[in-house]
Amino acid sequence: MTSFCIRNLKVFFKDKSAVFFSLLAVFIIIGLYALFLGDTFSKGFDDIPGARYLIDSWIVAGLLAVTSVTTTMGAFEIMVQDKENKIIKDFVASPVKNRSIVGGYIFGAIIIGIIMSLVALVLTEIYLIANGGELMSIPVLIKVIALIVLSTITNSALILFMVSFFKSINAFTTASTIIGTLIGFLTGIYLPIGQLPETIQWVVKCFPVSHAAALLRQVIMRAPMEASFGGTSAETAALFEQFMGVRFDFNGTIATPLTSILILLGTAAAFYALSVVNLSRKEI
């Protein structure tokens, strides 16, 4: 399994275009916010002190949640390519067990997702500081890295289940394009959840990746939230958090961080199990 995982890592990082395009969404969104969206968003909160730093932190957290999706998707493209090119038949015919082959793809995708998300973390930190923000403290950074690992594990399970149905690059590319387009809306990067119709809000709240984004926002936005809402009531801060998707309100019940973590862990376990069942019914 280890050797096969290393093989997949080499294949991915050897293809410079695959590495670049896995981070393309990050570059595009940072560029859009740096050029004009950041000012547009922050102007809507002119009455809040330190609005730009607060909104930039919100953007950064959402970006990190999305990156763990797009990069693991790029990593699992190797699996689809191996299927389409019949390379996987050579692996299956070898003495290596099927579970080791699948495990190699999974751990390779998780490692790639974590590495590329950490690269995105560095880029977003540069963006934050360049716009007058502050460098994350060590405790915050440790929590962010831990959440990156958790979200990457969950997202790799979701993507693996999707990939288990594909045997051609064309089908995979189409699905990747659709997911890449929708993921920004489902995690509330392009629009705060409070601006969406109520039905769509429920879709966002039930989407596992949104809980990863919410957890990251709670950690990354803690300092700017204290700076911006330190002189106001707790109710005002709570309403802002619900509007921006920092915390999810389920008919008056606020989802706790533990709830979101359990949702992510449960999603990972469920979709890994479903993927194993689906792959066991057919050739890998």
Structure description:
The two termini are 15 Å apart. The chain contains 13 helices and two strands; from the N terminus they run ααααααααααααββα. The protein is elongated, with a radius of gyration of 20 Å. A two-stranded antiparallel sheet has the order 1-2. By secondary structure, the protein is an all-alpha fold. It is 79% helix and 1% strand. The longest helix has 34 residues, at 51-84.
What's the main sheet like? 2 strands, antiparallel
Overall outline = elongated
Alpha-carbon distance between the two ends: 15 Å
Q: Strand order, biggest sheet? A: 1-2
Spatial extent as radius of gyration: 20 Å
The percent range for helix content is over 70%
Give average pLDDT, whole number.
84
User: What is the count of structural domains?
Assistant: 1
SSE class: mainly alpha
In brief, what are we looking at here?
Helices cover 79% and strands 1% of the residues.
List keywords for this structure.
284 residues, mainly alpha
Write the layout of secondary structure elements.
Blueprint: H1 2-14, H2 16-22, H3 24-43, H4 51-84, H5 87-93, H6 98-130, H7 138-163, H8 169-186, H9 198-206, H10 208-220, H11 222-229, H12 234-244, E1 249-250, E2 253-254, H13 257-280
